């Protein structure tokens, strides 16, 4: 870090961007850095950390701090911003202020100025202010605050270029402002008395206010601070927090009175739109239409590219890589490990790229247009019953298409508690990959009632998500939900560059983090599926693989939910379902097909000659799949969730759609009753999500909570399936007690973990 003062030019510096949510901070960050960004997490927390570089130069760093309203350290975002500003790593703090909401935004400005750090004010959204007919005297504002002020619009290239030039000039030439709020005499005298002992005015004020970082604790005895606070509150007849806030707002109002000149305000276009969008009767229908369009873009449009990525990456990294390894004489185990394991993992990650991309694209469009805040407002009352903000409803809707983007969509939630609760709930939404399993069992066991059965599974998933929210609200995430300030930014047309940068950076994070977990996990499962008990390889989806033998061995665990010993292929399917839930269908088809062939003394397809590998043909097939996928894009909700296939319970249609042999239906009926089949579907609904989803969960919450959620889902799946089966069959009362006891035990375990985590967080913030 190189700090230069006194007018010297600076080529090596760090700028920190600070501001309220929706003030245009991220827009300015994207405009300053373009694609030269890196996204990670701040050390020790899950708060997102964004860094970028001006003009691609690694010596000119820009750090985008979390959007906050104050530095009170009441949330992780506020603690992260406060600690970074105190660290001195930034040569200059650029405080972005929404010029059209000057009073509210200047509260953060005031608290940053009090820290004694060099600050430049960037007045954003000046175009909106001009449309309202209002003006701000920039020179007077600079004089009143004692800091340089740069005015502009973050969405305007020329304005940003001028701002960058001005801010770059100011690096090293800005001194901390000495213009600060004046507090009541009792507080000012106390701060002056403590200033030397605390190590500065801000330290003394923070200790009095109760917002000081942990390293300052002990400089003034806690008992002494509490006594002085109580004494002053008693004298001034008001709580200390209110006294300090009133003093700051008094300072701000004095500044605004001198610099801000407003004309009589007309109702804005945004307010006129909100009269319809936020209408108590029209708000929810409009929200559902918008959610459907987002769902359609992410799932229907995104899914049309999946086969292209699947075939292309399978051709290159699995088949092609396997042929290459074979041509140089690599042993079977090397081919299986590298092509069948690592290659298959890369192929699996690639298939999620289009869905994740289109989901982030849809979310970026909604956020940039200003509608996302309205969606949160519309659904807030409903979601508050679960202790969540209205915005949490969006990932739940997304989950009906794919769990991976649903989990990643929780990034739109500012509060960590809200994000984590939503991540725990999202897997209960039946994703599109589960539908082939539902449809297969529905057609095989329920005939004409298949549609109703599948619909009931979807509804049960929603109910279980709600119950999970209530469960977590009183256990793992017990306590009051984080405060939720409803910010309604003005509407505007989404900006292409901003939307694409935001979408691309999110996609890169998914590939870099979740992708690693997926590749490793798919590699391990792929090896177990290929490795035979005799040490040979190439035993995929056969009863000789280690995975199949393991499945047979643990089948008795599932007997309380009606899984018979001869239904061991269904148990193996649960393992392969970890790749992706639709893999359950492929496993059942392969294993039941082998059983049918053995019973009929048919050799199957083994006599067929294996088609020679052709890279060109594989790439050609991928583009054929792309064309078919694009032509197959449909706008109907029925086609998205598969209602058009399952509505009539047509076995041939379901078998064709799921790409299975219709002959396996009779074997499934032999191994399952309708009750045990439904219990199996309940297990598939609830248990461990696919590896891609698990990778996303770990990325968002960390490995500890990720494993905890995986255990919770799988244990709950067994308990719910067993409880249902025993009730429906009038079975063993003991199993009912065991399954109920498991859920109760989970509650107390989660409650204990929650208490421990809260104590740990309290110590960190103390």
UniProtKB/TrEMBL annotation:
Keywords: Cell inner membrane, Cell membrane, GTP-binding, Ion transport, Iron, Iron transport, Magnesium, Membrane, Metal-binding, Nucleotide-binding, Transmembrane, Transmembrane helix, Transport
InterPro entries with a match to the protein in the record: Fe2_transport_prot-B, Fe2_transport_prot_B_C, FeoB_Cyto, FeoB_GTPase, G_FEOB_dom, Gate_dom, GTP-bd, P-loop_NTPase
FeoB-type G domain sequence ranges: 12-173
Chief subcellular location: membrane
Positions of GTP binding: 19-26, 44-48, 64-67, 124-127
Membrane topology: Multi-pass membrane protein
Statement: the UniProt record of this protein carries the keyword Amino-acid biosynthesis: no
Protein task: Probable transporter of a GTP-driven Fe(2+) uptake system.
PANTHER family: FE(2+) TRANSPORTER FEOB (PTHR43185:SF1), FERROUS IRON TRANSPORT PROTEIN B (PTHR43185)
Protein's name according to its UniProt entry: Ferrous iron transport protein B
Species for this entry: Sediminispirochaeta smaragdinae (strain DSM 11293 / JCM 15392 / SEBR 4228)
Lineage, broadest ranks: Bacteria, Pseudomonadati, Spirochaetota, Spirochaetia, Spirochaetales
């Amino acid at each position: 870090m190189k700090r230069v003062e006194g007018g010297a030019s600076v080529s090596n510096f760090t700028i920190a961007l600070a501001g309220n949510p929706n003030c245009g901070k991220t827009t300015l960050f994207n405009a300053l850095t373009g694609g030269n960004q890196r996204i990670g997490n701040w050390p020790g927390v899950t708060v997102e950390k964004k860094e970028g570089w001006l003009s691609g130069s690694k010596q000119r760093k820009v750090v985008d701090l979390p959007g906050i309203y104050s530095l009170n350290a009441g949330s992780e975002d506020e603690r992260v911003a406060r600690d970074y500003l105190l660290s001195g790593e930034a040569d200059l703090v650029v405080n972005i202020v929404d010029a059209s909401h000057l009073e509210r935004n200047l509260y953060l400005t005031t608290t940053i100025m009090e820290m004694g750090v060099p600050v430049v004010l960037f007045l954003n959204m000046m175009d909106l202010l001009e449309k309202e007919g209002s003006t701000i005297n920039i020179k007077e504002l600079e004089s009143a605050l004692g800091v340089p002020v740069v005015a502009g619009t973050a969405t305007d290239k020329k304005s940003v270029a001028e701002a960058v030039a001005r801010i770059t000039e100011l690096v090293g030439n800005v001194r901390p402002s000495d213009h600060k709020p004046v507090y009541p005499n009792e507080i000012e005298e106390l701060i002056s008395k403590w200033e030397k002992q605390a190590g500065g005015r801000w330290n003394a004020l923070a200790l009095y206010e109760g917002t000081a970082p942990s390293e300052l604790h002990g400089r003034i005895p806690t008992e002494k601070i509490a006594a002085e606070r109580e004494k002053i509150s008693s004298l001034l007849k008001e709580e200390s927090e209110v006294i300090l806030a009133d003093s700051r707002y008094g300072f701000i109002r004095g500044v605004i009175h001198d610099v801000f000149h407003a004309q009589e305000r007309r109702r804005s276009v945004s307010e006129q739109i909100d009269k319809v969008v936020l209408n108590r009767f029209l708000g929810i229908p409009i929200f559902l239409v918008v959610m459907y369009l987002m769902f359609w873009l992410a799932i229907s449009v995104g899914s049309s590219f999946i086969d292209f990525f699947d075939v292309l990456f399978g051709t290159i990294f699995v088949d092609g890589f396997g042929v290459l390894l074979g041509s140089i004489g690599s042993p079977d185990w090397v081919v299986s490990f590298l092509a069948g394991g690592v290659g298959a993992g890369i192929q699996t990650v690639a298939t999620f790229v289009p869905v994740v991309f289109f989901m982030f694209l849809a979310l970026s469009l909604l956020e940039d247009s200003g509608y996302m805040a309205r969606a949160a407002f519309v659904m807030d009352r409903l979601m508050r019953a679960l202790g969540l903000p209205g915005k949490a409803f969006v990932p739940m809707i997304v989950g009906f298409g794919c769990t991976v983007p649903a989990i990643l969509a929780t990034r739109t939630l500012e509060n960590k508690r809200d994000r984590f609760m939503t991540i725990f709930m999202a897997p209960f939404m039946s994703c599109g990959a589960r539908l082939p399993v539902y449809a297969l069992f529905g057609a095989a066991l329920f005939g004409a009632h298949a549609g109703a059965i599948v619909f009931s599974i979807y509804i049960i998933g929603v109910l279980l998500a709600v119950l999970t929210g209530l469960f977590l609200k009183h256990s793992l995430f017990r306590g009051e939900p984080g405060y939720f300030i409803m910010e309604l930014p003005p509407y505007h047309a989404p900006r292409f560059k901003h939307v694409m940068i935001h979408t691309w950076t999110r996609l890169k994070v998914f590939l870099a983090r979740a992708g690693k977990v997926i590749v490793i996990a798919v590699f391990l499962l792929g090896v177990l599926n290929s490795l035979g008990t005799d040490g040979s390889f190439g035993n995929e989806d056969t009863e000789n693989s280690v995975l199949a033998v393991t499945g047979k061995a643990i089948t008795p665990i599932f007997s309380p939910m009606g899984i018979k010993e001869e239904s061991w292929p269904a148990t193996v399917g649960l393992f392969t379902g970890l790749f992706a839930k639709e893999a359950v269908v492929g496993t059942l088809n392969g294993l039941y097909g082998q059983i049918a062939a053995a019973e009929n003394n048919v050799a199957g397809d083994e006599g067929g000659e294996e088609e020679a590998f052709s890279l060109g043909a594989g790439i050609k097939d991928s583009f054929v799949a792309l064309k078919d996928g694009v032509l197959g894009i449909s706008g109907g909700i029925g086609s998205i969730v598969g209602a058009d296939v399952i509505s009539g319970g047509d076995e041939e249609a379901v078998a064709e759609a799921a790409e299975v042999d219709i002959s396996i239906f009779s074997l499934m009926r032999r191994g399952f009753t309708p009750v045990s089949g439904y219990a199996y579907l309940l297990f598939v609904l609830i248990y461990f999500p696919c590896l891609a989803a698990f990778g996303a969960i770990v990325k968002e919450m960390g490995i500890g909570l990720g494993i905890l959620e995986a255990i919770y889902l799988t244990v709950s799946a067994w308990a719910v399936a067993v409880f249902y089966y025993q009730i429906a069959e009038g079975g063993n009362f003991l199993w009912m007690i065991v399954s109920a006891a498991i859920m109760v035990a989970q509650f107390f375990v989660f409650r204990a973990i929650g208490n421990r985590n809260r104590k740990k967080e309290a110590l960190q913030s103390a």
